[in-house]
Amino acid sequence: MGGPRFLLAMAAGLALVSAPAGAAGFRSVAENAAVLYDAPSAKAKKLYVVSRGYPLEVIVVVEGWSKVRDASGELSWIESKQLSDRRTVMIKAPLAQIREGVDDAAAVVFQARQNVVLELLEVVSGSWLRVRHPDGQTGFIRVAQVWGA
Question: Could you read off the pLDDT of 4-22 as tens digits, one per residue?
């Protein structure tokens, strides 16, 4: 059991586990539209298309492909070059309040409906994020109201 093939397999497994730090975490779609596949190949079955800014959780990166989880929890593959380091979050509450400050009593700057994508500007604390709407408005939202943080 401890022969050369076993050691080689163990070394390959450790190489995958010790992937670069950027391999996991959230990224957003960089292209106007990107296809998600059921395997890491352009010849694999096309599952669906996501638009620019859609947040995806990167699980692992393998030879130019990223295995990702979407907001519904589904796993799929996307070409890594179609992902951006720009962070976005998607509203998961039916209607979220984006506030002037990091306090539930702070004035509401704007509201956003479920599935609206906002740019993540800053993680303020463990429970608040500073975000920007595509129209330029900024404010603070509770982490519990979004997916992608």
Answer: 443 333 333 333 333 333 4
Q: Which of 145, 144, 29 is nearest to 88 (CA)?
A: 29
Residue 8 in 3-state DSSP? helix
Task: Please report, for residues 59, 99, 119, the alpha-carbon distance to residue 137 in angstroms, rounded to integers and kept in the order given.
Answer: 31, 11, 10
pTM: 0.77
How far apart are the C-alpha atoms of 76 and 96, rounded to whole Å? 28
- All domains in the chain, ordered by first residue: 4-86 (2.30.30.40), 89-147 (2.30.30.40)
Tokens at residue 43, please? 């010849």
